[in-house]
Amino acid sequence: MTAMHPETISVERAPVQRSRGHAANVLRRLLRNPVAMIAATVILLLILMAVFAPWLMPQDPFATSMLKRLKPIGTEGLPLGSDELGRDLLSRLILGARLSLFMGIAPVIIAFVIGSAIGIFAGYVGGWANSLIMRCIDVLYAFPSVLLAIALSGALGAGIVNALVSLTVVFIPQIARIAESVTTGVRRSDYVDAARASGASALLIVRRHVLGNVIGPIFVYATGLISVSMILASGLSFLGLGVKPPEPEWGLMLNTLRTAIYTQPWVAALPGVMIFITSVSFNMLADGLRSAMEVKQ
Amino acid sequence: MNPTPQVLPKDRRDLGGPRQPLLIVRDLKKHFPLKKTGFGLRRERLAVRAVDGVSFEILKGETLGVVGESGCGKSTTARLLMQLTAQDSGELVFDGQALGAGLSLREYRRQTQMVFQDSYSSLNPRMTIEDSIAFGPTVHGVSRREALARAHDLLARVGLEPARFAGRYPHELSGGQRQRVNIARALALEPRLIILDESVSALDKSVEAQVLNLLQDLKQDFGLTYLFISHDLGVVRYVSDRVLVMYLGEVVEVGEAEALFERPLHPYTEALLRSMPSTDPLKRTEQAPLAGDPPNPIDPPSGCRFHTRCAYAQPVCAERAPRFHEALPGHAVACLRHEPESGYDRRLIPVQEVAHV
Amino acid sequence: MTGYLLRRLGYALPIMLGVSFLCFMLVHLSPGDPLVSILPADASAELQRQMMQLYGFDRPLLEQFLRWLWRALHGDLGTSIATSRPVTGEVFRAVGNTLMIAVLASLIGFSLGSLFGFVAGYFRNSWADRLASFVSVIGVSLPNYWLGMVLVIVFSAQLMWLPATGAGPGGSSDWAWDWAHVQYLILPALTMSFIPMGIVARTVRALVADTLSQEFVVGLRARGLGELGVLRHVVKNCAPTALAVVGLQLGYLLGGSILIETVFSWPGTGFLLNQAIFQRDLPLLQGSILILALFFVLLNLLVDVLQTVLDPRIERG
Predict the structure, then answer these.
(1) In 3-state terms, what secondary structure has residue B253?
(2) Domain hosting residue A135, numbered range
(3) 0.80 exceeded by the pTM?
(4) Which chain C residues are closer than 8 Å to A238 by Cβ?
(5) CATH label of the domain that carries residue C228
(6) Measured between beta carbons, which residues in chain A are less than 8 angstroms from residue B109?
(7) Per residue in C78-136, pLDDT tens?
(8) Which residues contact C281 (CB under 8 A, 6 or more apart)?
(9) What is the ipTM for the molecules in this complex?
(10) Please, which residues have CB within 8 angstroms of residue B268's CB and are 6 or more apart in sequence?
(11) What class has domain B19-244?
């Protein structure tokens, strides 16, 4: 093919062959990964369960009964047994999905927004501003996450909002670090230089050239954090630092049922099964997403 | 609302007339500071002197080739000219207007564009080809519709059928095709000067020739001026009107391509030319014309920076820095051998040759 | 090398200062007057005045911090409200107990994790690989406080093989390395080992697979080196990184032991933190977190330095 002159070829304006974008390719590969799809289905079911909890619960999850305390799994009318106050465990597990999922996912979403903003800003601006921001982030990152979550929750006191704040603070530095390193890489790339050479403003370059290239890797990293967040959030409630009774939440249920491990051990272990299933599903979905994104093109 | 302009706003073309150089580069300097070493009083700031006082002119309509070993500051010069890196000192005068004084950076960047070496990393992997090309014009106020239409025209112009290529992503194209896209993107802003930084170096030889031909055609049709940076002397000789030689962050020789290739004045240029692989078996050289690696740009040699590797070096070369001057009409060099009253004794046999006897 | 060590230390010191500041701020984060949270509810006006002066809560924040830091540097982290004993002593006693299970857990996690990871990486994409990868995902997805409960249910409540809670028969606080005591160690350490096991398995799998795909291994095989010899090279290549990972895990275990220690009533730092939180014993909370966090930073530093010393390939700029 040699250079063609304008008069020798007709410029067609009509149907332009469109290629699939990156996101579509990732999705296609993800859909072909059976493990990730099972995990996604489980997560979807859990979310549906949380949303439609009021219609799914067979009984009032708050109704206590001294007569029906700590019944085993399979008792009539109590398919998954009852807790130490005689409340129907199945209903509580279903309603518990709401707070448990919320407490697990919300901190990651908030931290994703804040951490990405911090990291992308630091990465794009570079220089001493970057150093200043990242050294502050490093201080937070220097704490093991469980310790930081407990330190903040412990100082702030029990409660949903405080637990949410603590967990968000735990995840912000982790996300910001990833965002910063990805952005720094993109910022040094030739296509960003080319965009600068075209006279575009920094804001426009970040919006059109940087965001699209950094948000994917940050997002994948954040999905991996949901699993950790689920465990940590339930852990805080398990310690009595998160959700307060009588609200059903899996970690808190595990805590109150701890006294029953000698009388009804398998009932006592059930809330943990829910936490585990959720956490493992998010982990596998994140793994699938990661390998779907990592494929060399 | 203001009506969106259908084409790019008109720039004031050819202000100074044909005799005014398109770009005058004056004493451009860029030192990259290194990590500080030492403590307390012994603490010192070291810097890589990537570009150390470079001055030259690019004439209207010419192709100025730039050659030199890797690490001599070619690419830093390109980035400085494109203002992707800020210079420590020095001045750029574009068509008679000083950048920052008469000419805004934004306006300058419309008239000067760059094509990078790596065809893949210079295209946003998440953008379609047409969007990449259309981005520049939209920055300058062209409507998206109009910019896309122009992108399609340019694709056709660089030999890529728009209907097939416009909606594709960079990874779906070959290296040569991607470099054509990069050229189209540079053209989209209707620049007058295009900096080609090793733009064809990464391509296969056959593809390289096609792209070079395309560049020559485009230059004619759009009235462009090229700064052509390459380590490939053969290619530079083929495309350039004039050639500039850089060594350790300095310009050591500038001249008409033919004159410079036939009768190089600077020993470094001579050595570079001798290192070119020859297709003529009778002209094969037996010994390496350039021994060793270039000296450390952090602490360049005293006097003439080339004296440590120069076959003609004399003691004076280590003491006196040569002045860059016009030794022959239109042919400038920085070498004491060609400098009158420089203290260089032209009768002496070069020191190194004596040592080898 | 000395240059690197100095630079690494120069990086760690500001971090430690920042960590200290954050711990200092914990008291100010908690709702209400910091004095109220330090004093018992029925404190007399005289005691309040004394404490106010002692802690200097009326002074600027920065000055308070510097005074607190100065005392902390001399090993004085204040007095526990609940026990009226110095915080430093309380924390270090607890750190010793936590170290016992954390070190044991790291050892278990490292051995099993390396084994799984090695098999998975060596027989890549085989059923063994899938199984090992599955086990490692489970390891990092298990809420370990729940795992602890399940282990108690199985081994204590059902089988009655091992004690469920405590750190010695009859609630005694004197530790001894005999079976009567060691049996209390097994379940907490086993529970704690799951996360490092999963992480080590993941790392080792990636390392082994990566090493095996490198050209020098192809070269070794081409020169007729037996499989066992190849394996030795692989182990030598992977060991420094795997050890570094487990070293960092030890730090995470120390900091994250609170949930497991709560389950097993193990008298370590986690248990101490739990007490501190629920008795609103803020000096104790502050002190334990400071020591644990600084320990983590120092461990990071140590692992980094050791890795650089051991692995000549690592060039750090």
Answers:
(1) strand
(2) 30-46+89-294
(3) yes
(4) 145, 259, 262
(5) 1.10.3720.10
(6) 197-199
(7) 888 777 788 888 888 888 889 988 999 999 999 999 988 888 888 887 888 888 888 88
(8) C80, C81, C82, C275
(9) 0.84
(10) B245, B247, B252, B253, B306, B309, B310
(11) alpha beta
